[in-house]
Amino acid sequence: MVKKNFLFVLFCLFSLVVNAQVIADGVYVIKSSINPNYVIDLSGSNVFNGNNIQLWERNNTNAQKWIIENVNGAVIIKSSINKSFVIDLNRSNAASGTNIQLWESNGTKAQRWYVRQKGNYFEFHSAVNSSYVIDLNSSNIASGENIQCWESNNTNAQRWILERVEESNGNSYVPAPLYPQTPQSQIEKCTHCYGTGKCSTCHGRGLSPNTFFCFSFFNIDPSIRHFGMRFRFMGG
């Protein structure tokens, strides 16, 4: 019985890891880590099976905005022009030099990508074979340069900066404030700012006893989610 319970716990932990979201659902511009002025772009803004995915200087058109949606531990990268079309590995062929293209969504592994974070950058690993990733041909920064599949080699040609520009529902994305915002009416005495509410690290709140600290820190998720830890000290 103990062994079965232990295995069940391991299974649950494994499921949590596999299904963990590296990035939140939303609309993103996918920028080259070599030069962030150049981004992943849908050639000619044309939506049809086989249209090329390329690099292009940023111009803020919908051809350069991609809807990232988490599905069972991987992501699907949809065109913001037509959500029925996604970034696809040609013929599901995980090999260096295989083209990355647009194709109508069909639920295959050719259209799913594992996101791995490397510092401030992200890599997109093919669900067909995770040793292969989305790559900028020859690390060449130029409008029209091809985006392809290539064996992972830890170069910046395979690392991307994700800039979230919209929520998954199409609303404008507004990053969370760096520090928790407290209405002035709720601010009382604080041992750092003495009730002015101008302290960047601690905010007295309208509670009794009213002296405690609120430390703000954030994780590395690009959506910058913030968490607070409150330590309440007994006193008048």
Write the layout of secondary structure elements.
Elements: H1 2-18, E1 26-32, E2 38-42, E3 53-57, E4 66-71, E5 74-79, E6 85-89, E7 100-104, E8 113-118, E9 121-126, E10 132-136, E11 147-151, E12 160-166, E13 212-218, E14 226-232
Antiparallel strand pairs: 1-4, 1-12, 2-3, 4-5, 6-7, 8-9, 10-11, 13-14
What would a concise description of this structure say?
Helices cover 7% and strands 35% of the residues.
Helix and strand sequence: HEEEEEEEEEEEEEE
Question: What is the terminal separation in angstroms?
Answer: 52 Å
Q: Could you give the order of strands across the largest sheet? A: 5-4-1-12
> What is the oligomer described by this structure?
single chain
Enumerate the spans where pLDDT stays under 50 for 5 or more consecutive residues: 9-19, 178-198, 200-236
What's the main sheet like? 4 strands, antiparallel
Radius of gyration: 23 Å
Which structural class do the helices and strands define?
Answer: mainly beta
**What is the count of β-strands?**
14
**Helicity level:** under 10%
Task: Report the principal-axis shape.
Answer: globular
Strand content: 25-35%
Give the helix tally. Answer: 1
How would you characterize the overall build of this protein?
It is a single chain. By secondary structure, the protein is mainly β. 7% of the residues lie in helices and 35% in strands. It contains one helix and 14 strands. It has one helix at 2-18; strands at 26-32, 38-42, 53-57, 66-71, 74-79, 85-89, 100-104, 113-118, 121-126, 132-136, 147-151, 160-166, 212-218, 226-232. A four-stranded antiparallel sheet has the order 5-4-1-12, with no helix packed on it. The protein has a two-stranded antiparallel sheet with strand order 2-3. The chain has a two-stranded antiparallel sheet with strand order 6-7. β13 (212-218) and β14 (226-232) form a beta hairpin. The longest helix has 17 residues, at 2-18. The protein starts with a helix and ends with a strand. The model is unreliable at 9-19, 178-198 and 200-236 (pLDDT under 50).
